Amino acid sequence: MADEPTRRERIKAANIPPAIGPYCQGLLVGDTLYVSGQIGLDPETGGMIEGDIEDETTQILDNIGAVLKAADMDFAHVVQVTLFLRSMSDYALVNEVYARYFSGATPAREALEVGELPRDARIEISCIAVR
């Protein structure tokens, strides 16, 4: 008898913009939540927020927080984060904002410099959280 497939549940936070492509905000597989890459989209307008890299990073982490909350999780559940930066020169400023959201046992993380991001974003962040 074949094993039952692990239950997969699409997670949709009502208070952030919908996914801008053929993907979901988050996918809960068993007790693991995979949060799709988020860029600095304003929940009220659906467009990119105005401001600097700190403003963009703050909006992204707020949006990720909303996806986590929709799955009954929070930042303490995050075990892995990936940062995609258009310029590695923004790394220190991103870390200042990032530290406000993650404390205690911080998740594993990698940061990559990329050539271009959707909607001309300066940063995109994805993560994995576990209950």
Low-confidence runs of at least 5 consecutive residues: none
Number of helices: 2
Helix content: 10-25%
How are strands sequenced across the largest beta sheet? Answer: 1-2-3-6-4-5
Radius of gyration: 15 Å
How would you describe this structure to a colleague?
The mean pLDDT is 95. Strand 4, helix 2 (91-101) and strand 5 form a beta-alpha-beta unit. The radius of gyration is 15 Å and the shape is globular. The protein has a 6-stranded mixed sheet, covered by helices on one side. Helix 1 runs parallel beside helix 2 (91-101). The chain has one domain: 60s Ribosomal Protein L30, Chain: A, CATH 3.30.1330.40. It is α+β, with helices and mostly antiparallel strands and 131 residues long. 22% of the residues lie in helices and 28% in strands.
Provide the descriptors you would attach to this structure in a database record.
131 residues, alpha+beta, 60s Ribosomal Protein L30, Chain: A, six-stranded mixed beta sheet, 2 helices, 6 strands, 22% helix, globular
